[in-house]
Structure prediction request, 296 residues.
Amino acid sequence: MNFFLLIDKDEGSSSFNLIRQLRKLTGIKKIGHGGTLDPFATGLMICAGGQYTRLLRYAEAKDKTYEACIKLGYFSDTGDPEGEIKQGKLSEISVETIAELPMRVLGERELKLPRHSAIKIDGKRAYKYAREGSVLEMPTRLSQIHDFEILKQEENCLHYCARVSKGTYIRSLSEYIAELLGCDGYTLNLRRTMIGKHSVNEAHKMNQLGEDWREKTIDPAGIISHLPALKIDDEQVQDIFCGRKISFQEQFQNISGGLPEQEYALFDEASALIAIGKASEGLIYPQLVFNRENRA
Prediction:
């Protein structure tokens, strides 16, 4: 069974536990998601089942939008409320400093990766070093902060919204922002509100899903909306199912250079997703092929 579901994850539940619940509900073992959320975080997760798990890399690559709160004047060894919290540096923050903050945050930023993260250092997960008490100089990762807005400021807390590139750790971003303010700080709470164009407002809580879960699945076209779409006829569908290349030379003969060499989403005449194909020398070669009779 192939499907996509938008889930609004609750606080305290791990991403793996959410997948385990979906497996139990649907009876489908092959289920994955397009971006982990830490247990303390809430919000949007794109989950896929069956052959559509192969499309999750497109969801993972999309920009993500978060709403977060930084607790200023304290630091956490995990960067979040689940770690050991200690009192740290707290500076007086002027109105001018707050006003200048978006300009200082936006753009490409080298953010230090969290000690408690799944990245590998010399073949070993960073969180394993942290659990052993080893203190490492953590590497940085280039992140793109596309949008940044301060939502509100209250005593020792700063609430913000940010749209960021793939692989950005919001825990790291919060610590960076606190540093710009002359303070220590950690991410007190976190909610993912968007992945690409999909909003958490479209998502369902796990306790809202029952035997009618199939009715709440979404069209895979939204996940791959960045790919140009091509409609193929029944003969071409059969060619794709047999692993054969297909030609679109006639449709693109007026374009200089012919068919642009890139990935395409291939749909049948009923607008069902058939495959992801790669164009080369005027032909499209199937890369990922999906069974039409195996959809939610």
Remarks:
- Helices lie at 15-26, 56-60, 95-105, 126-131, 170-180, 234-241.
- Residues 229-289 form a domain with the Archaeosine Trna-guanine Transglycosylase; Chain: A, domain 4 fold (CATH 2.30.130.10).
